[in-house]
Structures are given as structure tokens and as C-alpha cells.
Amino acid sequence: MGNELNIHPLGDSALTIKLDDNISPEVNQKVLALAKSVEQKGSRSIIEIVPAYTTIAVYFDPFVTSYDYLSKSIHKSWQDLEIGEESISRDEVIIPVLYGGERGPDLGTVAQHNGLTPEDVIKRHTTNDYLVYMIGFLPGFPYLGGLDKELATPRLDTPRQEVKAGSVGIADQQTGVYSLDSPGGWNIIGHTPVKFFDPEREEPFLLRAGQSIRFKEVDENEWHSIQDSVKRGTYEIEVRRGGSKE
After folding, report:
1. What kind of fold does domain 91-241 have according to CATH?
2. Closest C-alpha to 61, from 9, 8, 13
3. CA-CA distance, 74 to 67, in Å (whole number)?
4. pLDDT at residue 3, as a whole number
5. Helix axes 67-80, 25-41, angle to 10 degrees
6. CA 115 to CA 109: how far, in whole Å?
7. How many CB atoms lie within 10 A of CB 162?
8. What is the pTM of this model?
9. What is the per-residue pLDDT across 42-60, written as a single tens digit (0 to 9) for each?
10. CATH-assigned architecture of domain 6-80
């Protein structure tokens, strides 16, 4: 791999790797591939790896390895790294959303800000595929790329004290889904009954970095039906692999 990495200490038991200054799917693909390679080669000494938009934080055991040794190992992994088609996730997770009304109180605000109708906002929001760049802020909260520029809307002047888990929001040029009840200043345009974080599941996080999601509009009856299935533990998330429904 061509470009030189920037690696810096992050305290006495962690380091940060910076791959680029620009956020893009191509850069993030390299981030995820390098993170996987580093994890595989340093499993005994590494405690946690946290990939982000253009960087990776690596937390290590200083009694097992050192910053200098790990830095050299990471540089070697970077030079040897090859990114093929198999490293690109083709998963597309379908997220059902009830837009507007009491579950999407800011749909009209987003529409008005951008000179659109609420129906236009819904159509644009459900048309694009969204890349999961990273998970953060809250457990299971996905940072998504791919929002239509015509939907970009500033955060609320006064954040709400509580935003319900499952709320779908827009803030500036990002869209996302609250994974837990939390204070927040995003414009809430809808709600999904799907749990993005569930500590009772074998895999608590619904999504992982590198996947893609697509929002799908549902009506009130469908929303309640899905919510009931989620509560019973019988709801099966729709995943399309390579464009096919699973």
C-alpha cells in the first residue's frame, strides 16, 4: 500500500493511526482492512481496535508489547496490505421506518429548510444506500455516509433532553439512528422499532463498520407489527447480500 502512515502515541498503552485527511468510502475501506490485519497479527498484545472515518485507535497491553514494536508491525502490515473485492462488504441491511407524525416531529422542519415537501424528504431519504463508516457516540450508533445533500439540515438550536431509541435523525450532512434513549439535537424525521443495540443478543450491535443500510418506509400498522415481533424476539432483519434478499 502506497501512502505512509501517521502513527502517534495515545497515552502509554494506545496509539492512533491516521491514513488520510479526507473522508471517503475508499479511505474508510482501507481503514477497515488495516484494522482487520492489525487485529489478526497482534491478537495476543492488542486489547481493542477502534476504526473511525480515517483513523484507527489501537489499545494494547504494554506488558506484552511496546509502542515502537507495534508501530513497526503496523507499518509492515500497511506495506503488505492488499484490498480485494472480498474485503468489500456487500451486505445491505434494510431498516423499516415510520416517518413523520409524533415519531418524526422534525420532518416538516427538514422539508421547509430545504424547500421540499415531507413526501420529497421521505423519498430522498429512502432512495440512497448509506455506508456505515463507524460505530460510536452510543453503543451501536452508526455514523452513516451517503445522505442526499438536499436533506442537510442544521442541528436543533436547543437539544431535546430525551430522544427515544430507534429515532431516525438528520444533523447537518449526516443521518443516523439513536441506539439508546439519549439527549440529542438531531432533527428527528421518523422511527424504527428495530433495536440497534441489544445487550441480550449474542451480537449486541445490529450493524458493523463497512456494511450498508437502506431505509424503507412503513405505515403505522406495519410499524406496530414489527414492534410486536421485536418485543417477542421473532423479528428477522432483512439483509440483502450482493443485492439479493435474505
Report:
1. Cyclophilin (2.40.100)
2. 13
3. 10
4. 64
5. 120
6. 10
7. 11
8. 0.85
9. 678 899 999 999 999 999 9
10. 2-Layer Sandwich (3.30)
> How much is the average pLDDT of 16-28?
92
Average pLDDT over residues 97-107: 98
Domain boundaries defined on the chain? 6-80, 91-241
DSSP per position, the chain? --SPPEEEE-TTSEEEEE--SS--HHHHHHHHHHHHHHHHHTTTTEEEEEE-SSEEEEEE-TTT--HHHHHHHHHHHHHH----GGGS--EEEEEEEEESGGGSTTHHHHHHHTT--HHHHHHHHHHS-EEEEEE-SSTT-EEEE---GGG-BPPPSS-EEEE-TTEEEEEBTEEEE-SS-EEE-SEEEEE--S-SB-TTSSS-BS--TT-EEEEEE--HHHHHHHHHHHHHT----EEEETTEE-
